[in-house]
Design goal:
Elements lengths: L2 H4 L9 E2 L5 E2 L6 E4 L2 E4 L7 E10 L5 E11 L4 H16 L10 E6 L6
Antiparallel strand pairs: 1-2, 3-4, 5-6, 5-7
Length: about 120
């Protein structure tokens, strides 16, 4: 499959589509949406992030984890923060369970991608 078609494999549910075909997502006050990543206004270099991904096969049939969304979380109580990140992902993707939109998630440490 050509790369030009692969980018349209999964866009995920969004609030609406624009005329250019880009999806818009909703953010609650105090957070911003950058691409498919949400982050709080204050980011910490020691912050944790939950990365939701979809597995897509390449031209040889090998699976690759393609990032759908990265949600920054507080490292204070990791288990509760991960649950909050899952709820935020479900709300922004408009799904009842995160597995409807993603194949998995991983908790990573460090500065969010792109910063």
């Amino acid at each position: 499959m050509p790369v030009s078609q692969m980018k349209n494999l999964y866009r995920g549910p969004a609030s609406r589509d624009t005329a250019s075909g880009h999806c818009l997502a909703r953010a609650t006050p105090g957070e911003s949406v950058a691409g498919r990543r949400t982050e709080n206004d204050a980011t910490d270099s020691n912050a944790l992030a939950v990365v939701f991904y979809k597995e897509i096969l390449d031209h040889c049939g090998f699976p690759h984890q393609c990032e759908l969304m990265r949600v920054s979380i507080s490292p204070a109580v990791q288990e509760e923060a991960v649950i909050d990140a899952i709820h935020k992902f479900e709300r922004l993707q408009r799904v009842s369970h995160w597995k409807c939109a993603a194949d998995g998630y991983a908790v990573v440490r460090g500065t969010p991608r792109g910063n």
